[in-house]
Amino acid sequence: MSERATREENVDVVWSGDWVAERLGVALEGDGDLRELLGLALRRNPKRAHLLVSNVLGKHVPQRPSVVYGAGYGLGERVRALLGEEEARRAVVLGYAETATGLGHAVADGLRDAPYLHSTRRPVAGVAQAGGFEEAHSHATSHLLLPEDPELLAGGAEASTLVLVDDEFSTGNTVLNTIRALHEPHPRDRYVIVALVDMRSPADRDRLTAFAAEIGARVDLVTRSTGTVTLPDGVLERGQALVAAQEAEQAEEAEEVREAREASASAPPSVPAPAPVTRVDLDWPAGVPDGGRHGFTPAHRAALEAVLPDMAERIAGALGGGARQGRVLVLGFEELMYAPLRLGTALEQTLGADAEVRYSTTTRSPVLAVDDPGYAIRTRLVFPAHDTPADGPGDRYAYNVAGAGFDAVVAVVDSTADTSELHAPEGLLARLAAHTGQVLLAVIPSYTPTPDPHSQESAVLPEPLRGPDFSSYAPEDVGWLLQDLSDTELEAPTEEREEAIQSGGAHYAESLPVEYQPSAEYQALFSAALETSAARIARAVGTVTETVLAERGPRPVLVSLARAGTPVGVLMRRWAQHRHGLDLPHYAISIVRGRGIDATALRWLAAHHDPVDVVFVDGWTGKGAITRELAAAIEEFEASGGPAGFDPEIAVLADPGGCVRTYGTREDFLIPSACLNSTVSGLISRTVLRADLVGPNDFHGGKFYRELAGSDVSVRFLDTIAARFDEVAGQVEDEAKELLAADRAPTWEGWAAVERISEEYGIHDVNLVKPGVGETTRVLLRRVPWKILAKRGAGADLTHIRLLAEQRGVPVEEVDDLPYSCVGLIHPRYTRGATGADGKAVKGA
């Protein structure tokens, strides 16, 4: 884009620095377009009161993405011309966090073939520091250099030119600190400093010249505009006093407004419903970093450029009709500036003249907001940090977004920042939703380098799969921490699987049973059972959720054990949202009996959430095998060096076995989600763990049975139960209070019963005894059943059990003294000779 077009974009009748200049006597002088590039604001900072606010940086002032990108790219082209093509190809570009991360990346693009790295304030476990330095005037000083390739910043006789990029060159202290820190261990002959504006005093200019002579290197400077800021004596103290006075005045005005509203009406004023938040799957290219925190190579650049149009189309497709012709803001996140910027430039091209696309990012920097045309920061949104920062929790800000008339906001964050704080009632998404008609959330996978310093291969933790691309659940309902094996042939006949499993030739998780296709009679039975039990299930969902919120709140991270736990996790999430307005994160994770939990998935959870907040969720307990498996797996995970803090206690809908202390009920009743397989679980298979398919850094596998969509009742199951939430709310409140005050210690009654049954029936293997309605259903659907033990007098809860048993020729034996409604017995010492040609059990085999 031409500089003339850029100037036309920023022309305003009133200079956005007048307010500060008039009150503090701050003067900004320089070449022709300096005032078009910069405005002034005030900030609460003990080192510098004023803030130069750039109109083309894309940090504080929403601007056309093409203007922001063009400003950096143009500077990069000038550096390329300065160095010459050969040296430009060997240069390394270093940008500064947080404001110049996107600018520096655009400069690297302008050089065309230069790798890029930016400093960061986010330490990353397992990544060694290649250096660090301090930023003297900043509110958050420490900069870390964390390149994946330790040779990126290496110097020596043949060292490449280092190009350092910042938004402004004010005193030169930060750049000098950087060069000094890097030059001593890795000397080089040439440095180029790049900035949008050079605001140094004559003394500062002389200091840079002397510094270059001292280290014996050439130091060039490339800037877009040059000027000076004149600060009168006492400006810091006067600025701090002005900020304090303005904040006090604004607080008083806000209180007066609140009191006036309370006095003028008995009922609170109607408040428009907040905009909906919709998650957009970008399909970010695998292996491409989210930015330059650990380095970004020309190969990464080419891969990203190739898919930008497709990602923009996905965003455009998610925008409502009004937004597609209105004002759209692409909002980045602190250091994550470049990726949102490029999405913005691509969206600008996709939507064309029909829409007005703008770009800016959130920031750590606290700046005073004054709603005056002569002030650069008109409005301010405040929200809590949502990426678990190393320096602890604190406020973050989005400027000039409220009141700007955006029809939609596309919030772009990395997956490390996709936390419960982001989705909280006072979080960023909620703050945005109050000021626009639509909020889209696009999450880019956080890049995690390999911890091996000698490896040149990048290791990226996989990202969760979401519907509709994987599962029939809505994308916000659950993120599946699985890898998609939908195109892999994994199914084997039930009898072959059973013989292989019992003979020790294969593990049950290495293959999948053929998906049961329910008959019309069985489907009708499911429908009847769902209607009959919906209120009872809703009560159990509410009770277990309220217990979790009371004991593990305020914003637990729900992690269901795929797949039986997943419908329960979705329902718990819906209860928390419906009753408390909480948008709880929910993921599904694989655990395999005898093999443990998915360690890669645990590492992903630890990288994105505090492990202490994770609550594991399952559908029901049988004899408690998975409860024991999870406890042992978490202990082994931590002992092997995995992040600590995960609580292995499981929250379940029903605990007939007395195996856990967090449950909705201990009754053994029919949970309709146990009646079916994938068609009530988002069309997802049971999980798969096989060495030739799942590598050490892969999630466990699963299949999405798209072809069964015509039989899918997953959403119907959820909606039917959620529709009863209000009806059972009073009962849930009472039951939750009783449970929280009760002794809920596990009794392990179920385990004792299973051991007794195993011996009485000559099975001698507790793994072949499956207690409870849910587990018995699984035996009939997925294993080779021997017989069913039914509690004498059990009623409608076992109707579907009796039907399945009849269809498979399995005897049902009525027994007394059973702590469960029923128990399914898998055929012991199984061989295929134990079934007839029709697949039914042969009695007495």
From TrEMBL:
<feature type="region of interest" description="Disordered">
    <location>
        <begin position="246"/>
        <end position="276"/>
    </location>
</feature>
<feature type="domain" description="PELOTA RNA-binding">
    <location>
        <begin position="748"/>
        <end position="827"/>
    </location>
</feature>
<dbReference type="Pfam" id="PF15608">
    <property type="entry name" value="PELOTA_1"/>
</dbReference>
<feature type="domain" description="Cysteine protease StiP N-terminal">
    <location>
        <begin position="471"/>
        <end position="721"/>
    </location>
</feature>
<dbReference type="Pfam" id="PF15609">
    <property type="entry name" value="PRTase_2"/>
</dbReference>
<protein>
    <submittedName>
        <fullName>Phosphoribosyltransferase</fullName>
    </submittedName>
</protein>
<dbReference type="GO" id="GO:0016757">
    <property type="term" value="F:glycosyltransferase activity"/>
</dbReference>
<keyword id="KW-0808">Transferase</keyword>
<dbReference type="InterPro" id="IPR029057">
    <property type="entry name" value="PRTase-like"/>
</dbReference>
<dbReference type="InterPro" id="IPR011215">
    <property type="entry name" value="StiP_N"/>
</dbReference>
<dbReference type="InterPro" id="IPR041688">
    <property type="entry name" value="PRTase_2"/>
</dbReference>
<keyword id="KW-0328">Glycosyltransferase</keyword>
<feature type="domain" description="Orotate phosphoribosyltransferase-like">
    <location>
        <begin position="37"/>
        <end position="227"/>
    </location>
</feature>
<feature type="domain" description="TRSP">
    <location>
        <begin position="290"/>
        <end position="430"/>
    </location>
</feature>
<dbReference type="Pfam" id="PF12500">
    <property type="entry name" value="TRSP"/>
</dbReference>
<dbReference type="InterPro" id="IPR028157">
    <property type="entry name" value="PELOTA_dom"/>
</dbReference>
<dbReference type="InterPro" id="IPR022537">
    <property type="entry name" value="TRSP_dom"/>
</dbReference>
<dbReference type="Pfam" id="PF11202">
    <property type="entry name" value="StiP"/>
</dbReference>
